[in-house]
Structures are given as C-alpha cells and as structure tokens.
Amino acid sequence: MKRLWPGFALGVFATVAGAQEPASVGSGAVLRGLDKINGQVIDIDLANGEGADFGSLRIDLAQCRYPEGNPAGDAYAFLTIREQVGGQELFSGWMLASSPALNALEHPRYDVWVLRCKI
What we know:
By secondary structure, the protein is mostly beta strands. It has one helix spanning 4-19; strands spanning 23-25, 28-35, 41-47, 51-54, 57-67, 76-83, 89-96, 110-118. Strands 1, 4, 5, 6 and 7 form a five-stranded antiparallel beta sheet that branches. The protein has a three-stranded antiparallel beta sheet with strand order 3-2-8, with no helix packed on it.
C-alpha cells in the first residue's frame, strides 16, 4: 500500500495543478468532419453558439477554450451533435483537439473532431 501512496499523491497534485491553469475563450472553433463511406473530409467553421449541418448530423458549438497564453495549444470545445431526422442526441460534452478518441462521437458513418479555437 505504501507503494501506491507516492503515485497517488503525484496524480492528485498534477490534477489540481492542471485544473488551476486558466483558460481563454475563443470566438469559435474549427472542426473537421469525415464521412467514412465516401471519404469526404470537410472543415466546419463555427462561432460560439452557432450550429452547422454535416451529412445527416446537426453540430452545435457552445464554446471553445484554449490554454491562456498559448492560443496554438490544446483546444477543447463543448459540442452537441444530433441526428437531423428525429433529433436523437449522439454526443454532448467537451471534445479535446489533442485527444479526439478520449471523448469521441460514436457513429457508424461520421467522425467529428476539434482542430482549434478561433481567436
């Protein structure tokens, strides 16, 4: 049990230190969408509070944030993605540019990920 304690303490410290890093709010985000059936790739440029259609999906951006003092750093955006027909919610949450698979859209045809925030 003593072996786990130093690792646990370091993990908690790293989490607290990371949580204290201030974030800046961008004016919007640039997303990338992939249609896995036909291979079409499209960049989607959204302002905060805007939405766009991509294939049969409706993508709404609430907000995009990035590390303060590092606009080229890791962006993360709060997205809500729904089916256009029926309005079934497929994804709602923060999506990270550096780790799109960490919190990803689960869809058999489409992939959507964050590229960067607009400043």
